[in-house]
Amino acid sequence: MDEFLKAAIDEAKAGLSEGGIPIGSVIVHNGKIIGRGHNKRIQKGSVVLHGEMDAFENAGRQPARVYRECTLYTTLSPCSMCTGAILLYGIPKVIIGENKTFMGAEDFLVENGVEITVVNDRECIEMMENFINEHPVLWNEDIGE
User: Fold this and answer.
1) How many H helices and E strands in the chain?
2) How far apart are the first and last CA of the chain?
């Protein structure tokens, strides 16, 4: 398994262990993780701290050229909010752990020139399937339903 996808999965597991939703993300620049995060909506009572947003927050202020050279890894297909941030900061490549349990705005990413790769990793799928089955109300809240 790709070391960066594994790091995103580790973030998702950290979120789950904190009582949150198991979605993790890392932002990689020149082979180094510059931002990592996981969904903290439950833990922080936040409406915006999805895994990707937390990774951006933890990457901190970066020159635009840095983000234009990054790859973002996420355990789950990015929602429209996270897709917007990916496009806003010019991330050119996104590696998606899985899109079986939730199909985000992948078409919009592609239409805007972002290269995406969907791995459909079994561990990512099982982690989300289990969470959705055990916590449907939290999951529906997270995706705006």
Assistant:
1) 8, 5
2) 33
Determine the length of the chain.
Answer: 145
Tell me how far apart the 2 most distant CA atoms of the chain are, in Å. Answer: 42
User: Tens digits of per-residue pLDDT, 3-22?
Assistant: 999 999 999 999 999 999 99
Helices (H), 1-145: 3-17, 41-44, 51-59, 64-67, 80-88, 106-111, 122-134, 136-142
Q: Tell me, yes or no, if 141 is annotated catalytic.
A: no
Strand order in the sheet with 32-38: 32-38, 24-29, 70-74, 93-96, 115-118
CA nearest to 122, candidates 97, 95, 139, 104: 97
| pLDDT, tens only, 12-69 | 999 999 999 999 999 999 999 999 999 999 999 998 999 999 999 999 999 999 999 9
Q: How far apart are CA 12 and CA 85, in angstroms?
A: 19
Amino acid residing at 122: R
Amino acid at site 136: P
- Catalytic one of 18, 52, 115, 126: 52
Decide: 102 and 143 in contact? Cβ < 8 Å. yes
